[in-house]
Amino acid sequence: MSSEKIGFVGVGRMGANMARRLKDVGYEIAAVNDVNKEAAAELANELGSAHAENLADVTAASDVVFTVVTNDDAMRAIYFNDGDNLLQGAGGKTFINCATLSPGIQKEVADAAEAAGGGALEGCMASSIPQAREGKLYLMIGGKEDLFQQMKPILDQMSVNLKYIGDIGRAAQVKALVNMVMNINTAGLAEGLGLADALGLDLEMVCDVFSQTGANSRVLETDAEDMIARDHEAWFSAEHAAKDSGIAADIAKEAGVNLPLNDATYAQYSKLVADGKGDLDKSGVAELTFKGRHP
User: Fold this and answer.
1) First-to-last CA distance in the chain?
2) Distances (CA, A) of 50 to 16, 41, 57, 62, 277
3) Which domains does the chain have, with CATH numbers?
4) 283: which DSSP letter?
5) Helix, strand or coil, per DSSP, at residue 162
6) pLDDT tens track for 62-101
7) Whole-prediction pTM value?
């Protein structure tokens, strides 16, 4: 059994499977917390952990706390809430924040953790649920390198490819670029297939041609079949795609860079969310590009 006690805040499908992986390789999952108390209680029972309804109790029970929450506002809620937060009793504790967030909130949290006597890293993920369960995440780490080295044995158990990016906030910048390009590729593929369908072309043939030409992409492999079949079970939701394209837009604005393709992609995913379809997979952007699928 490894010596560090691990806590998790945010145990949706990603967080829960990360916790299961660490339990499998010998770490004690000391406490779990989620706004979905039923899900947290079920996972706690499965892993033999405490279901900590208070955030401060997660910190108290753990040496290292992983967070996997939805956005910057959720981060502020778990770290800076006046009544109950993770930074209470944070001396000597390490926080590893794994969601796709703005660089600014990552730095804000890291500074606050250090002020409280602890430390924080970014653990930005570029993988999905099966990889979380199997310990095959692609993890991009930002923060102090000595703290990264201390946490590396834990992170190695979660990752098939562990990349130290640099100072706090840098991993968030790179992750924003990853998701920006992925979302643009996804929206572009949806338009290509939507137009091919409108022209009456055989979509299987079109996908085969794409795969052998400059139109090939990882997204073609993962999303084309789902776009055609309208199978949009969420692995990475349209709502998250909109959020992440928005983060990229904000970073670009601060840098004084114009990103028209990202802006168009952000608009498409925002429309899906506004239409009540934010819980679809990112492949659901095809619902806006195939004739007859939208008003």
Assistant:
1) 57
2) 14, 8, 9, 11, 35
3) 5-168 (3.40.50.720), 173-288 (1.10.1040.10)
4) G
5) strand
6) 999 999 999 999 999 999 999 999 999 999 999 999 999 9
7) 0.93
